[in-house]
Predict the structure.
Amino acid sequence: MKKRNVFLVALLVLTIIGGAVFAGGQQDAADEDRMMVVGYSQCDSQQAWRWAETESVQNEAKKRGIELKYNDAQAVQANQIAAVRSFIAQGVDGILLAPQVMTGFGPVLQEAKEAGIPVVLLDRLVAEDEDLYFTFIGSDFVWEGEEMGRIVAEQTGGKARIAELQGTPGADPTIDRKKGFENTIADYPEMEIILSQTGDFNRTKGKEVMEAFLKAEGENIDVVYCHNDDMAIGAIQAIKEYGKDPGKDILVYSIDGIKDAFQAMVDGDLNAVVECTPLLGPQGFDALEAAWAGEVLPKWVMSEDGTFLMEEAADLIGGRAY
Ligand code: AHR
């Protein structure tokens, strides 16, 4: 959107309501034709899901003629806070933040707010005051966990010893996918989580943790519930190396829906996937443009996700966008 339009809309809104927190785009006439600049702080780049999200944001920025400043925090929250601070210092027009964990972002979000820079949270929520960010765009992680619990219950007849590979400690999807899954299996007295540990949403770590699980309880695990596909791919490898057949001897379930997971379902190694879309670029920029126009969005713009079983994967894999 052109700066002049943003300014006029913002002025109108400010006149009517006497002030707006995230009116954004407080530009002067001198730079009205300059490109809008957005800082994008990605928490990690060691997962296929994150590559898809980054590509979605980069493509959308290009399409809209927006300059994108990208930073990969390499799974370190301090890097991410420093990146956001640097975006603020550079005077960006908006920030897309895919936060590593839920807590600890309060001060830097406050700094962005004081600088009049709207922040849109992409794919993960933070446990901070809602006034500190414009909106959150992402999936319902509790639903994902509950849905996965329902599928596992259905496919095991409500009887299973479960090993759980958790995501990054303190991250929204880790907390809620665990909670959702436990909500469902609470109704099944013969479903029990016998092992649970973090694999950090990472393929290599997922494999390592699964190896440890197999060493400890290899003959007692019926099901592996993975908080994301990357860890499931690692777990499948570990199960094969242990000498068991993933998808049959040990049932494997995960969340995300990346192409590798669909391939694993086609190969008979992964039993089902609950989707969590990373294609958030268009909605992220829609939200920033709404902020620049002085509009108000709900604090959560929820993504629409689906559920896919092994039997359907061969027909669907060709149409997967990530
Ligand atoms: O926040 C979304 C989750 O985080 C995805 O499931 C996962 O792959 C990512 O790291």
Observations:
- Confidence is low (pLDDT under 50) at residues 1-30.
- Residues 47, 49-50, 123-124, 173, 201, 228, 255-256, 276 surround alpha-L-arabinofuranose (CB under 6 Å).
- The first strand starts at residue 37 and ends at 42.
